[in-house]
Automatic annotation (TrEMBL):
NCBIfam families: prenyl_rel_EboC (NF035940). This is 4-hydroxybenzoate polyprenyltransferase. It comes from Chitinophaga niabensis. InterPro entries: Prenyltransferase_related (IPR050475), UbiA_prenyltransferase (IPR000537), UbiA_sf (IPR044878). It holds the Pfam family UbiA.
Amino acid sequence: MNYIFSKLIGYLRLMRPANILTAITDILAGIAISGFLATGLGDVQAILQVTCMAIATIGLYGGGVVFNDVFDAALDRVERPERPIPSGIISRTEGVVLGSYLLLLGVLAAFTVGELSGFLAIGIAVAALVYNKWGKHHNLLGPVNMGLCRGLNLLLGMSIIPHALEKYGWLAVLPVLYIAAITMISRDEVHGGKKRTLMYAALGYGIVYTTIFVLGGLNHKFFEVIPFLLVFIWMIMRPLLAAMKEPTGPNIGKAVRGGIIGLIAMNAAWVAAFAPFPYALAVLAFLPLSFLLSKAFAVT
């Protein structure tokens, strides 16, 4: 029984449960931006479509982060020997099998919603594998590659109404920028980093929350968006400013975790800008659960 339990926990650690919740909120933000939630979830078909989108991103994100540990197994033996693969709890082969099943699940679930959604899911899976194998080793292309995965995830949510991509597809640039900033600073969370890198991240963050603020105003949802933006800014800027003051590994690690978990507040702000207020509250409700999971399972 202890063996089975340790295996289960090992698999969950590989999948980063707290992060997966942020990916689900990416999808919900995309669905809101598409206009799908403007009139509510009025029938079973609509609920099933949203559910399949959530299952798709669980598989795609989970598979992507599992392969991250698969490809980093040798490095983790030196820098993070407590992780499931270098510690021996999960074998590298078991990681490959789990990651492959999750990516396949994600792609198949997306195709149940539509052909465009399915092809976007394939793009996410490919982008994740490219990042894990090659992208992360490039100073500039790596952060952009990682951001592309999140940008495509937002587009995946929007694809629930395919023609919405024509009007709002450009918004995918923002999660690319945001995640690129987080990825850029995350490289220094082991050994510490430079203040300049953190300042670039702050600039990227600023562009993101300013754009959400402007779009909320244009959609006449200024007052609905503001509370969620304040939560978002507090979550990401408080640890980032602390890291700027003292750019040590632990402080940078806190800034990275704040940036990742803060995605939920960011996505709640997106939902507030494009959908009825209760949906934004429902997205923000993921935040305490993600916090709890982040205490038990690593987010980086």
